[in-house]
């Protein structure tokens, strides 16, 4: 009983007011704090974008130096967290390890965290942005049986992460600037996307006054699903399964057949009924990065053929299904030698900036309330309990 609006999947419900990110899904527009995503992708850096999302304005040089210093000096993870990682099975998925390890940070920073203190809230955000790459790389190295590397704080954010991922003792890692630049750009594109499932999760958990590390861990869990961030891993697996351009038509036919249970991964979006502006940038970038790295990946041809065929097909045209951010990102990650099971982890590193920006915004929102949706009850009417021997 009661008078509620039924809105399964929240297709028409605004859960909060936010000044962080603007999307016009019909026009294919994405702005972070008013700045178009293509300008940020071309001119900014991930750390600058993280500052922008959190603080609302681009930093001046002094502000950027201070933010960068803070992030750099919180990159270490507590040594005891290693024991936590060591408890996972050798074949644990890095997303499971990331989710668990980030949640465990709430135990390291709990009693001392006063959420009423703006400086402590800011530090929680800084710590999350700083430690996520360290934990992500450690999870990856554990999954392949390599000893973890400590963060090298003389490097920038992305290069430091690449070192922690790939460096082996006594062999200095020759970092290709093309790789570092491409990864930085991918982090920018993934940094925020207003009330997507994972950010809404962070806000829902945050609305109860929960510890911010636990909130972000919940966001990571939501991101992992194939309908959300898990799609980038699923896209690559799908392209590998399709294998060659001549199999594209049958894949399209299968995606159109509702009985098949198969969807074209990396296609469609709740908000974009036009090209996802991030997909446009990534598409261009894929050709550039593969060219610069001299990588000739036959999966790119499969992806291009698939995109072309879907964009011409009535089924996809009528439903306004376009490639989304995850469609091409996997091909770039693969060219950068990021293993497939780390793709969604990459997304999580970038999105952490958005998650903490939303969490911080919520903490000072005078209209924020505990998130508590209602339901339409469809169960049994009142009835009397029957003893087990009489059922
Ligand atoms: N392949 C085939 N059919 C599709 C697809 C697809 N990828 N996406 C949607 N449809 C169909 C769907 O079956 C439905 O058809 P009908 O109207 O005949 O019932 C119609 O299009 C509308 O789809 P919906 O499921 O009602 O739309 P939604 O807004 O609930 O879902 C989505 C959005 C992204 C979950 C969905 O498009 C999808 O599952 N895509 C594949 C997974 C994917 O790429 N996810 C990444 C999303 S973008 C980045 C991110 O969040 O990580």
From TrEMBL:
Recorded metabolic or biological pathway in which this protein acts: Carbohydrate metabolism; tricarboxylic acid cycle; isocitrate from oxaloacetate: step 1/2
Pfam families in alphabetical order: Citrate_synt
Keywords, in A-Z order: Acyltransferase, Transferase, Tricarboxylic acid cycle
UniProt cross-references to InterPro entries, sorted A to Z: Citrate_synth-like_lrg_a-sub (IPR016142), Citrate_synth-like_sm_a-sub (IPR016143), Citrate_synthase (IPR002020), Citrate_synthase_AS (IPR019810), Citrate_synthase_bac-typ (IPR024176), Citrate_synthase_sf (IPR036969), Citrate_synthase_typ-I (IPR010953)
Active site, per annotation: 269, 326
GO biological process annotation, one example: tricarboxylic acid cycle
UniProt key word Transferase: yes
Family: Belongs to the citrate synthase family.
Protein name: Citrate synthase
């Amino acid at each position: 009983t009661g008078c509620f609006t039924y809105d399964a999947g929240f297709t028409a419900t605004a859960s909060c007011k936010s000044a962080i990110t603007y999307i016009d899904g019909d026009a294919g527009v994405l702005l972070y704090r008013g700045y178009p995503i293509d300008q940020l992708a071309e001119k900014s850096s991930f750390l600058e974008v993280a500052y922008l999302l959190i603080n609302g304005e681009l930093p001046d040089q002094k502000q950027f130096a201070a933010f960068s210093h803070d992030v750099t000096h919180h990159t270490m993870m507590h040594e005891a967290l290693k024991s936590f990682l060591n408890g996972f099975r050798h074949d644990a998925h890095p997303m499971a390890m990331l989710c668990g390890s980030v949640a465990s940070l709430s135990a390291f920073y709990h009693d001392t965290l006063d959420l009423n203190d703006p400086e402590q809230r800011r530090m929680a955000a800084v710590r999350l942005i700083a430690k996520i790459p360290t934990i992500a790389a450690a999870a990856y190295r554990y999954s392949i049986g390599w000893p973890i590397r400590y963060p090298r704080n003389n490097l920038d954010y992305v290069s430091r992460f690449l070192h922690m991922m790939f460096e082996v003792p006594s062999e200095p890692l020759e970092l290709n600037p093309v790789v570092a630049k491409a990864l930085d750009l991918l982090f920018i594109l993934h940094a925020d996307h207003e009330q997507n499932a994972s950010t809404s999760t962070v806000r829902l958990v945050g609305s109860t006054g929960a510890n911010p590390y636990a909130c972000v861990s919940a966001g990571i869990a939501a991101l992992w699903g194939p309908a959300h961030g898990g799609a980038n891993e699923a896209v690559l697996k799908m392209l590998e399964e399709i294998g060659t351009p001549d199999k594209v038509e049958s894949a399209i036919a299968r995606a159109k057949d509702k009985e098949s249970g198969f969807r074209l991964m990396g296609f469609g979006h709740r908000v974009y009924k036009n090209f996802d502006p991030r997909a446009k940038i990534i598409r261009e970038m894929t050709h550039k990065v593969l060219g610069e790295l001299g990588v000739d990946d036959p999966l790119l041809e499969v992806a291009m053929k698939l995109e072309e065929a879907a964009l011409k097909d009535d089924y996809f045209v009528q439903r306004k299904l376009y490639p989304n951010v995850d469609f091409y990102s996997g091909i770039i990650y693969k060219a950068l030698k990021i293993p497939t099971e780390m793709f969604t982890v990459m997304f999580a590193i970038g999105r952490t900036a958005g998650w903490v920006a939303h969490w911080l915004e919520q903490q000072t929102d005078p209209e924020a309330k505990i998130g508590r949706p209602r339901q339409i009850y469809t169960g049994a009417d009142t009835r009397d309990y029957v003893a087990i021997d009489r059922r």
